[in-house]
Amino acid sequence: MASTLGTIFNIATFGESHCKGVGVVVDGCPARLALNENDIQPQLDRRRPGQSDLTTPRNEADQVTIYSGTENGMTLGTPIMLLINNRDQRPHDYGEMKDIPRPSHADYTYLAKYGIKASSGGGRSSARETIGRVAAGAVAEKLLRDRFGVDIVAWVSAVGAIEAAPATVDTLTREQVDATPIRCPDASTAQRMTDLVTEVRDDADSVGGVVSCVCRNVPAGWGEPVFEKLEAYLAQAMLSIPATKGFEIGSGFAGTAMRGSEHNDRFELKGDRLGTSANNSGGVQGGISNGEPIVFRVAFKPPATIGKAQPTVNYAGEEVVLEAKGRHDPCVVPRAVPIVESMAALVLADLAMCQERNRWVES
Description:
Order of helices and strands: EEEHEEEEHHEEHHEHEHEEEEEEEH
Number of helices: 8
Shape: globular
Radius of gyration: 21 Å
CATH superfamily: Chorismate synthase AroC
Largest sheet: 5 strands, antiparallel
Strand content: 15-25%
Structural class: alpha+beta
Strand order of the largest sheet: 1-2-3-7-4
């Protein structure tokens, strides 16, 4: 079950970074949802490598093919298989590293767990595995948008120590996010972020950052207490993305410095529903959505594979100097934006189906 996510709307991803292809099987998607490759490809295009000088130059088109689960552009209610072929593999780039566990990478831990590991790339720990998530997430987004009007937008809010001005989460669009290669809607800050990534890339190094996300129009009532609270499910999904090291929702850690009297979200009438005057809760209370925008942030570490010389040891414990070869991102956050959106969509689609089941059982 290590490669699956979801209770009703569930997915299982497959493939390694340098095998013949990667993909996903989506099960539990309702029948009669209009769906074809054109609904999925745009998010894969946003995730794919080689988009700019800020990303890995690996040249992959990442074209998706729907192999099952649809007919005449409509879902059948049966498992949907999505496959993306790998075409620009260079396993020879990893020859030197097959005997050396990369510092802060998963080479050593995968070997410790399974007694064997993929000899090139990161195998299942590679960001290439996230292609299946993004493809499935596009299906989930189509369901959320068409049936519930849910809208999800993520953006880069920090690179290294450079933080963007707070975004206007009520109106922010993906077009605004994609207006800069770094995917930060704050144009002046975006240039400084771009300069920093360029600097670390030219120094054969890497840098981390933060991706923020807003999910709008989520109805009140989604979430499965007590162990599958909405924010707990989101945290699991986000921290399953490669290179993630932190998750916070609403006020997050900053809320610990506030008093309850200023942190509490006061209720008020908004049209025909109750809403809150502030959103320190990040759209979730008691593990259940409250109808306000769900706002959260995900921290990404600097990519582990770098070209800069690093003293380390090989698997025999002998001291060596590693200068990693291959094509790698100097900063993952620009390409992580659609991955974060996709994981949020998968969580919300599953909780939406759970809520519909709850109401069906009650009736």
